[in-house]
Amino acid sequence: MRREQRFWGWGEPGAGPRLPDHAATLLRDWLGVSGAVVSAPIAEADVRLREPDVSVTLRAALERAVGAEHVRDDRAIRLLRAAGKSYLDLLAVRAGDCEDAPDVVVAPAGHAQVEAVLRACAEDGAAVIPFGGGTSVVGGVAPERGPFATAVCLDLGRLDAVIDVDVRSRLVRAGAGLRLPELDHALAGHGLRLGHVPQSYEWATVGGCAATRSAGQTSTGFGRFEELVAAVRCATPAGELATLAVPASAAGPDLRALVLGSEGTLGAITELVLRVRPVAEERRYEGWLLRSFGDGCDALRELAQAGLAPDIARLSDAEETRTTLAFAGRRGFERVLRRRAACLLVTGWEGAAADVSRRRAPAARALRSAAALPLGRGAGEAWRATRFAGPHLRDALLDRGVLVETLETAATWSRLGAVRAAVRDALAGALAGTPPAVGCHVSHLYPDGASLYFTVFARQDPRDPAGQWLAAKRAAGDAIAAAGATITHHHAVGRDHAPWLAAEHGPLGLEVLRAAKERCDPAGVMNPGKLLSSTKSFINQPGD
Amino acid sequence: MRREQRFWGWGEPGAGPRLPDHAATLLRDWLGVSGAVVSAPIAEADVRLREPDVSVTLRAALERAVGAEHVRDDRAIRLLRAAGKSYLDLLAVRAGDCEDAPDVVVAPAGHAQVEAVLRACAEDGAAVIPFGGGTSVVGGVAPERGPFATAVCLDLGRLDAVIDVDVRSRLVRAGAGLRLPELDHALAGHGLRLGHVPQSYEWATVGGCAATRSAGQTSTGFGRFEELVAAVRCATPAGELATLAVPASAAGPDLRALVLGSEGTLGAITELVLRVRPVAEERRYEGWLLRSFGDGCDALRELAQAGLAPDIARLSDAEETRTTLAFAGRRGFERVLRRRAACLLVTGWEGAAADVSRRRAPAARALRSAAALPLGRGAGEAWRATRFAGPHLRDALLDRGVLVETLETAATWSRLGAVRAAVRDALAGALAGTPPAVGCHVSHLYPDGASLYFTVFARQDPRDPAGQWLAAKRAAGDAIAAAGATITHHHAVGRDHAPWLAAEHGPLGLEVLRAAKERCDPAGVMNPGKLLSSTKSFINQPGD
Questions:
Q1: Minimal CB count within 10 Å: which of A429, B67, B276, B534?
Q2: E strands within A413-535?
Q3: pLDDT digits (tens, 9 = 90+) for A502-517
Q4: Looking at residues A459-479, what average pLDDT do you find?
Q5: What is the Cα–Cα distance from A141 to A27, expressed in whole angstroms?
Q6: What stretch of H or E contains B272?
Q7: Residue B146: is it exposed, middle or buried by C-beta count within 10 angstroms (0-12/13-18/19+)?
Q8: What structural domains and CATH numbers belong to chain A?
Q9: Cβ–Cβ of B508/A449 closer than 8 Å?
């Protein structure tokens, strides 16, 4: 039996860290909430769910394609496939709203079965929502039906084979539904690993990472997920779209790049050939304190441009630094934090021991010249130990009536400061009624720029918690687009970012993507309402 | 006045190296040609050229778009825009065949003028052939008319502005028609350079490098051209296709990748935002001798996988090593060459002095452990001094009745040996009547594989020199496709590789590219017969 997350929150019951005891005080001082639990998780029986609507013809075709036992419409599976894991998703599910859950969940076992399912849905006119790890925070797995009556969740979990390992070329061919830890576990027997570590690592699948252009916490050193993909195989209603596993090519436009980031709108990725690396002989994580966010950005820019960037580099601004250390109960740092602008930087190197010391030494020297105060390995390891904690803690914060959500972007170094200021101002303005705490960090470095990741906390508006966040999200997205930054560095588009896609790609750019979709999916059944939604997203509600 | 190459050969008259005196003996011993000049360059007046066919309406529209003085149909400009620089191109031009030269050459001054030209041609129904540096070796600038009577050469040479330099983000926005040396010269004032150095460096434009996915000799260290492109702006008959200048994004599929490699079939690239780097404080090139090609590949694979690859690494097989040293008249190496399998490796590092020594030391140690015999900096500098010589010397070889052409591919490390053997066998078989000398080198390293670059010399068959090469090219292309390698690592597709594109991308892949083209270029005027040619290329002649 494949492991499953809780339908109303993150991870398995009992897994993950809990809020520390002193959190209640912090939340009170900080956001004006009581710190007490005000909302309990919902019971499965209390969730509202429509009767499944699947035609006899479609059900028969699906059962022929994958076998009757892999076509399910019981309450349990429909709830597990009803939503992703954004704040808005969790608000809705916790309020008992799963009305739009998929009518049926179909789990094919390989590429050919996926193609058969897609053909059946295209013929019958049923929406297909590909589902990998289900960790989307942008509505990417929301069971939107578009013009169709029926929503079929295409559960890719059984495409979990490690098909071939080419140790010499450091390539692995794997099924798209394989979860990241499962792949790393299988590769360890060969002394290899993928080393792709998004915060959703515990649940994300390789196919999902490819479909959404995941960055992963190690992107600075190991590359974004798209750089790890040597070849991709995608099943579409019109047939197979597959690229050759070659290290590089100039044979026309790179078709991989059209499939990566297509978010299930062309078809479903079924297999990937991935570039892998040896297991890390050494991991060296450490903390540093920078005098200001600007100073820290300058230091990171210089490292990235000199080819000295660590594999992982995360610079928190002063607000996030204070929050992080306060939640961690790091009283020893209070003195340091009196330097109000002090910013925590975590650096990490992973690899062969000689490689780590060869790369770390000049970078550490450069950081010291930039007046970075070394905090030692404890501070780095503290981050590493809690790097998957965020979404677990979010459930506890939701229990306590806290608005908690993240958003992210990327911009050139020249624009980074202005983008950060614009987004902070937009969030503060939109949430002025419940003054938010907004922290920000840089966590992915490039020679020409970096990502910015914002975490927003506020007191929930109990009358309309969704509307409260929608207003903030809309303001932040508009600020990002106006500043010439990207609407998303690694969360993808899904349903929630679709309104800003035209600002990013221009009208003809969207037309070209639509043309590609029409060729692969003439019936328009693949993941309606995502990416290329021509209808206004729920983010832009009437009255905009 | 913009500098121009000779219409019948490479470079400006008198530029470039000449064949050494001992070359005649070598050619005789080696290929059985006399070594004497048997074919003189053709005079402009002797070339066959049709009268230009441009409708009055189209001419008026073009003149309105760019000004009458930039709409030319004189013999001189038509010859200069009649062909690229492949062996087949030069055979045809040297034989006086420019029948298909463009009817008119139009030189717009900026994005808006390019759009106006494209609109005029789409309305009138005239083929548009974008022309940058004109260095294509795959028929990419061949003035094919498709179904149209008129061929308009879109000369991008006047889009040569350095529009903006963002020193902090190390980005430059430049016009697509800027030549590589012109850009590096302009950037030097800021202490920067692009550092992209294909063999065509002296003439290639940045737009051409983008449209064809150039690799460049420094690709191992600095990245392929597509990795240097932060943003692209493209004029199409349906309007502008432009991407945002951000360091990374997950906002759907990467539209840059659809424009890069589109080879003028969607529209014409007009501007690029390029990632640049500091001018090199130090350059360290050196030579090594490896015991065999297999040993050398193993050593390079280990460097690439350990993150220790030099910025430039070129490993010649034994045949190419012997040829190189013999042409260079390096008698001192005779003893070494008696080791018949000995293979020359050139490594190069460029950057800040500390950076070069930091990166070179562990790589040099690894090479010594792989039993590489150091030949010192002289051997490396000798390669660097002659790295643009090939196409110049080709003209002298053509004068002497030598067939000389190159082709290239890339494959995973596991397949590299088999691909090399298959291509060599195919070339030897197809040219059995005039036994060829085939040299090969690896010149672009990736963790998962490498490029293979073949140089073929043979005695020309004077009865049908084009047919002689076509048979060899067809055999080599088929061998590459059958071995699962890419039909081109950096020469692009143009007209000559189009027959193998379906093997690379699959039928649906080609359909998707066609769908994108139809959206941008509904009239089908953009570079007909290239990339997506549905008609059989001239490479695949009747009887295949």
A1: B534
A2: 437-442, 445-446, 449-459
A3: 999 999 999 999 999 9
A4: 97
A5: 32
A6: strand B268-275
A7: middle
A8: 41-158 (3.30.43.10), 162-278 (3.30.465.10), 282-385 (3.40.462.40)
A9: no
